[in-house]
Amino acid sequence: GTQLDCARFGSHWQDIGFQGNDPATDLRGTGMLSLLTILYLVREQKSLAQKLYQLSQNETQNFPFCVLLINLTKIALVALRNGYLNKECNKRLAILPIMCDVFSALTYEHYKLWKTGKTIRDSGFVLKRLEEKTKSSSQCTELISNYKKYCNEKDGVFEKGDIVFLNVCKKDGQKTLESYGSTSQKKSRLVSK
Questions:
Q1: Which of 28, 66, 109, 174 could be a cystine partner for 17, CB 3.0 to 4.6 Å?
Q2: pTM listed for this prediction
Q3: pLDDT tens column, 133-150
């Protein structure tokens, strides 16, 4: 085992935004692809993941973080299945990186919409609005392009540096959910067992 080993079942999965104690039940629609996109976000788009996770924990604007990411994966997957990503996939001779780009772009668009004061009651509307952004090849290309432009802006959401996002494991009889903004501004939250 490693320090990241944690129980297959338990409330620690709810702490990061799954619906119940067994994350597998949330993965039925998109399976392993959802896990890959979630891992991609928290490893490669750390600052966006951090900001979205913090927003998911807001007292009035909270939402199930991982369930949202699974829904965004499904929207990206539908765009792929409908052939709307074919042009980009053929151009770059890749599929998974394009899926991750669309997923990241959708995640960023969700973040922008949600931080305007949306609540869980708005989630259906917000997801529909995001689906509309992936209804054609040109819309998907524009979505990716806008996201990449934003990533390259100096004042963008994305910070450089070593950022640890989530660590769900057991330590000394406690579950710990750590969420760090950056190495210089660490924040953590301990949740007792």
A1: 66
A2: 0.79
A3: 999 999 999 999 999 998
